[in-house]
Amino acid sequence: ESYCVCDIEDESKELFTATGNIPYVSVGESVELYGKWTSHPVYGSQFSVERTVRRLPSTKNDILRYLSSGAVKGIGPKIAQKIVEQYGDDTFDVISNHPDWLSQIKGISATKAYEISQDFNEKAGIRDIIMYCNDKFPPSTATKIYKVWGANGVGMLQENPYIVCERIEGVAFKLADDIARMHGISYDNENRIKCAIIHVLKVFASRDGHTYATRDVLVDSVSKF
What we know:
By secondary structure, this protein is α+β, with helices and mostly antiparallel strands. 51% of the residues lie in helices and 16% in strands. The protein is built from 11 helices and 4 strands; from the N terminus they run E-E-E-E-H-H-H-H-H-H-H-H-H-H-H. The protein has helices at 60-68, 77-87, 91-97, 99-102, 110-132, 139-149, 153-159, 163-167, 173-182, 190-208, 215-222; strands at 3-9, 15-21, 30-40, 44-55. A hairpin with a 3-residue loop joins strand 3 and strand 4. Helix 1 (60-68) packs antiparallel against helix 2, helix 5 crosses helix 6 and helix 10 (190-208) packs across helix 11 (215-222). It is globular, with a radius of gyration of 22 Å. The mean pLDDT is 86.
């Protein structure tokens, strides 16, 4: 879901090939790509993506292209045309916040309308987490965060980033600490102390093979963080 190879149209309408982590990219979206140009021995010039900033389409034509691409489950080209004709630039707001309005369109039942809204909002939630985590976690970790905490993922990270270390394998204490600093979480925060204790115990176990630590040793080690 993260790595892809795709053709991107630049501002001069020229196509180029981009490769890398561009999660959930769909036709009609606008993206800013950061990385470097590379030369593939078979496929030639390619842009190797290291970071992606993405935006949902905002014009009627781009919204239609986006929905017609199958980006939202339950919407094909014909249904997309009907929705955009009905709601124009407000289409995304209607899908997200007023799914019952969709059922006014021929071919969309009330059940299907809510399924469309649910899928759109789920992808939006993943997108929000990926954007927030852009410089912090790889897209694969952001997706895991969404699967655990859903649309509350960003709020959870802001309130208690240390919980990610406990629930998501491979997230380092220092990374959680960096996020905590961004949000003014104090060094003596209870969640930070708890996470530091668990981190130290894991280090003792993996590095030295210890199955426990004495209180004095543990307090001394944790106090260094």
